[in-house]
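Please check this chain.
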Amino acid sequence: MEYSAEILKIVEGCMKMDKIKVLNYTQLLIKKLKETGEIKLAEKFEKIIASKNEANLKSLNMQTIYKVPVDSESRLPIADRLEPSEIEDIPVFLNKECNVEIEKFLEYYNNRNQIINNGINLPNTLIFFGPPGCGKSKLAEYISKKTELPLITTRLDGLISSYLGSTAKNIRAIFNYAQSVPCVLFLDEFDAIAKVRDDKNELGELKRIVNSLLQNIDSIQNGSIIIAATNHEKLLDPAVWRRFMFKINLEKPEYEVRFNIIKKLVSNIDLKKEEIDIIAQLYDGFTGADLEQVCNKVKMDAIIEKKEIRIINFVDYYLRYKHIVIDNQKEKIKYLNKMNNKLFSGTNLAQIFNYSKPYISQILKEDR
């Protein structure tokens, strides 16, 4: 049966007398029907909403339906909502293993009706972990764009209240929202609310918050997508891991990923493929966020100095980053060759410094 996921959620909303849930999933069903060319059936559903529910839904304007909950104490929103149309459609570069897992998740989502029709709950939970700057937030946006579901990002300043009881209420409120409104619920800095429950320094109330969190994750099936992200995966309660079918380790980018990231970032700069190759090798161990910062600083320096950007600018920035100050070009060439004589071979050094190969060879022979 087509549209199983949407129909199940509509019936579930009816049984719970959740008007907002019924309306949202009916609108999602209408959208799917139009995408598959079933315009007449979509129009029938639109007429039902417009006529039968006009009185009941009169007070439920779009702002009421989509408005995220607020903390009862601070009145701060406990999440931010971002529409798929507001997310830039840009490629996401991932290490091979991560890319395989993300594409597999999207394949499951795109074939959700077949999965549900066979009596299996749709896999809808992912957890991203790894060092900062490796693209957890960008990957959540990518999934939101691909699934065409709004991205709801929890805000810790609103979610975690000074009153522990209010924190549990906030968690319940945001999950109730995800139950009623089809979305990608992104729980950033997840370790702040999912710590190990046997931590002797924590109060009993905090342990109850974790229990409540686990129950809420279990309650969302065949509807919204839950994504958690953490830089401190070792702090998470072991029971938390079992709730997530897809465990994505976002490590620092491999060479190929660094190459593609840099190529994208310098697309408006006249750099050869061989030069991007050298930069990608040089910046081994840098995160995607680091590489973006490097490219932006090199561009800004070039704007201020009114000079053309060349590969030497990236090499000089790397040396400054490592707190290595060498003003003499000859000494810089010698230093780079000693640092990595394969990467900074005579051929590569000639390209970087725009010197002839014989001249580079002469400089390198001086020390020998």
Notes: The longest strand covers residues 225-230. The beta strands are 79-82, 125-129, 151-154, 184-187, 225-230, 246-249. Residues 57-62 have pLDDT under 50 and may be disordered. The chain has three domains: 1-66, 68-249, 255-367.
